[in-house]
Protein: T-complex protein 1 subunit delta
Amino acid sequence: QQAVKSAGGPTRIEKARIGLIQFQLSPPKPDMENQIIVNDYRQMDKILKEERTYLLNMAKKIKKAKCNVLLIQKSILRDAVNDLSLHFLYKLGILVVKDIERDEVEFICKSTGCKPIADIDSFTEDKLGSADLVEEVSSLGARYTRVSGVKLPNPATAPKTVSIVARGANPLILDEAERSLHDAMCVVRCLVKKRALLPGGGAGEMAVSNALAQAATTKAYPDSICWKAYADALEVVPVTLAENAGLNSIRVVTEMRARHAKGESNVGVSIKRGGVGVMGEEGKGGQPGGSASASAGEGVMQPLLVSTSAIELASETVKMILRIDDIALSR
Structure:
């Protein structure tokens, strides 16, 4: 968000005291539709004087709480802040950032240590956040407000927030960059939660499928049918990868199944080879630890948590469906 400068307000505040309001700094609007008839200029002057007094009192209450950076939530009912309010806030030396989205309020409060304020009478100093510096900066034509040196109440346990600025030539490229960045951060998050990697390209799913298919031969009917069906379901992952890569999915999955049966558990779908290949650590062979005779791995890995979460969620979904005894059709 950009700092509001239409009223000549400040764009840099040191030792900032940050407040976030969810009410409007504009003349109140009645709940019902009405018309006001003004007969002469004296009545008009009285209306304008009441408006100035109302807004000035609100600005003074904000300043009295020692707030010098004000974040204003976006309003759909009326203007969140008008020019007269901005003028009063500028005279009081308060930096204003308006049009904060509703879904960003919780994140901003956690990051800055402030609390959302829904009414001017509730605007007190204990609900403000603190930071060493709040300033508006410019980078490649884009302007945004940067908050640095945030002082949280419990710094040992409080989350630390870092912003990443993504740039793109147009909205489509920017959205793609945001999705790619989100995927990369999710991978890191998975590795932090569970520090383990699996060969990618569907190798992990095929290995589990092969193990379940072998175990199904030792089970009695009807358990063997369930085990075999679960094994077949896991093969959907390499089939989908092969189809998305434009490969012959039947040939690829058949070759993967045969090589996994021989103990090559690191074999997965390879786009580089146009078929199957070793997905293990780059430069090492197909088996854990690598071997000189085996082909070099392609370095395609994935977090273990991704596969385990997918299998757990899929299993829970199937269990929920199996608990359904009957379906009531309705129009």
